[in-house]
Amino acid sequence: MSRAHPDFAFTPALPALQGRMGSRTSRTRLDPAEDRRGAPTDRETKPSREHDVVHQATASEAGWRHAQLKSGQASFLWGLDAKTRAYANCDSDLQCISVGELDGDDRVAHVRMNDATQRRLKTLGRVRPANEADDLAPASGLQLPQHRAQAGRAIVITVEAYERNCTQHIMPRFSEAEIQRAMQPLRLETKQARCEQARLRDASPQRP
User: Fold this and answer.
1) Which of 84, 139, 174, 203 has the smallest number of CB atoms closer than 10 Å to its CB?
2) Who wins on pLDDT, 87 or 27?
3) Percent of the chain as helix, strand, coil, to the nearest 5
4) pTM of the entire structure?
């Protein structure tokens, strides 16, 4: 966990609850540290960089949280620098719920999953205003080549804190592409075995 994450996630009521649950002692060592480690390092981002799914949460003006599944090709969430992430919000998103909520409240939470390696990374950040985002990363530059939907607006996020979660309860799941890669050696082995079987059959004496 980055030391900055409790600054955002731990509300005033949490220390008392953690004390009752017996977990407060392990958390207090993070409180006085000067280096808050707000930006994820390569160690945190590399395992999930190849995955194509991000769970995003925003908040409405009424205070309701809106969870949305953002997906695309692998690495559709671009890293502009150590503290900046960006993706293209597509014109096909006609409900505009997330974009509308971010115009009113710039806070956003992401959970990046790498099911195959049972790793996940949570990030908390703030979205740049639309005019700043277009200057930093035009939506057209974030467009994925194989994505049919047209990029509408660049969503540029300044990461404020992150947390790596325990992998204990992450169920391993694999994409079709990952399964195909894993099966390739077996297909090659099967092909070689069939060729060898055919060679031995052709070389064996024919019975009258």
Assistant:
1) 203
2) 87
3) 35, 25, 40
4) 0.73
Pick the CATH number of 38-173 from 2.70.150.10, 3.40.50.720, 2.30.110.10, 3.65.10.10: 2.30.110.10
**Hey, where are the domains in the chain?**
1-35, 38-173, 175-208
Residue 108 and residue 117 in contact, taking contact as beta carbons nearer than 8 Å: no
Average pLDDT over residues 180-197: 95
What are the angstrom distances between the C-alpha of 205 and each of 122, 193, 208? 66, 20, 9
Nearest CA among 79, 80, 78 for reference residue 89:
78
CB 158 within 8 A of CB 125: yes
Helices (H) and strands (E) in the chain, counts: 8, 7
The number of beta carbons lying within 10 Å of the beta carbon of residue 8 is 16
- Average pLDDT of every residue of the chain: 78
Confidence of residue 41 (pLDDT cuts 50, 70, 90): low
143 forms beta bridges with none
Cα separation, 161 vs 54, whole angstroms: 16
Burial (CB count <10 Å: 0-12, 13-18, 19+), residue 192? exposed
Q: Read out DSSP for 111-157?
A: EEEETTTTEEEEEEEEEPPHHHHHHHS-HHHH--TT--SPEEEEEEE
